[in-house]
Amino acid sequence: MVSIEGSFKFHKDDSIVIGCSAGPDSMALVDMLLKIREKYRLNLIVAHVNHNLRDQSVQEENYLRDYCQKNNIMFECMLITEYGDDNFHNEARNIRYDFFEKVVRKYQANYLMTAHHGDDLIETVLMRITRGSNLNGYSGFKKIVDMDGYQIVRPLLSYTKQELEDYDKNHHIMYYVDDSNSKDKYTRNRYRKYILPFLKEEDPHVHLKYLKFSTVLSEANQFIECERDKAIKKVIHNDILNISDFKELNSFIQKEVLYYMMNEYYQDDLILINDKHIELLLNLIYSNRANAFVNLPNEVVATKTYQELELKKITTEITTYEIEISKYVELPNQHVIEQLEEVAGNGNDICRLLSSEISLPLTVRTRRFGDRMALKGNGTKKIKDIFIDKKVKLGERDLWPVVVDAKGVVVWLPGLKKSKYDKKKTEKYDIILRYS
Prior knowledge:
Elements: E1 15-19, H1 24-40, E2 43-50, H2 56-70, E3 74-79, H3 88-107, E4 111-113, H4 118-131, H5 135-138, E5 144-146, E6 151-153, H6 161-170, H7 187-202, H8 206-235, E7 236-237, E8 240-242, H9 243-246, H10 251-266, H11 275-286, E9 291-296, E10 300-305, E11 308-313, E12 322-324, E13 328-330, E14 336-340, E15 350-353, E16 363-365, E17 372-374, E18 380-382, H12 383-389, H13 394-397, E19 402-404, E20 410-413, E21 417-418, E22 431-435
Parallel strand pairs: 1-2, 1-4, 2-3, 4-6
Antiparallel strand pairs: 5-6, 7-8, 8-11, 9-10, 10-11, 12-16, 13-14, 14-22, 15-22, 16-19, 17-18, 19-20, 20-21
Helix pairs in contact: 1-6, 4-7, 4-8, 8-10
């Protein structure tokens, strides 16, 4: 007998957001919660995402809206108007869970419940084994996930999809079927159509074996995470990995540390990353190149700068600029250049110039290919080489300010190096610039 009470401990006055698609699984979940609502005085909220990809999407939304109104359930819905990611399923999933969390916050709910079942778990485990992952990834997904102030709960993992469809039939529950779930072009569908029937033929209760497998791996992973966390304290500071310390770690723990760093950007969606990405990071770390980077999924880039490794999300921020210097200039790298009447310092953050030796006006811009600066004494030096000498991180170089005169002559590399045009305090000058 399918029952939700045996799979989760409910409390009086629990507030529960239900992620509902109007499909057979989620409609069964909503009905089960309705049947115990009065007993536990549950506050139920249905959250639905209209993916706006099929004509049937409008019918599903309207059906759910009417269903909730008839059953006195709060209904929250969002419509996706456009997609920008090449990986549709990943983007749709991220949009759904962002929306679900907003609903959870709005109603101050204790739980977000989804209708993932045993078949879903088998598919996820097999897909991750095929792609490659770590123990956390191989375990599929957890029944209960602690979030910030609430829990994601998947109370139907001990049931199969067929059992949930039988439940709907026995209780006369209407639901909608998404035709795309049968198309072979989607990886998960191929596992569902061709692998699961074979496994169920071998053992009708195979989903319970996979649930145990998932639980055992999760428990083992908890122990490993304790060891990993000890290592993290030694090798990661301010989200930057110290490569020298990292190389002293056990090779297995090294990989766990890298998965930990990537988890900040992929959260529970480990299907996006696999062994290939770990190997990319390890090759980057152990390469002889002082400055290098690799691209990861979803516009994340890993940058190596000497003995440091950092992961960052690629943004559409400014990468080039050219600004005429006035009394006060705010720069895209969060610094400023200001013109002063007098200043006491004489470091690389201060530049004194004589206007008769250069061409005005002065401009601050980003570096350009072939930029060189005339140094005090003799000769010139490439801006690129100055960056290398000063160990400027690869990710900071593109926005680093370069001060040039009207003829394009580099007169100052703020904070790093002065040119031959810089004057000592005892010499004649009429321009003072400070970088801060």
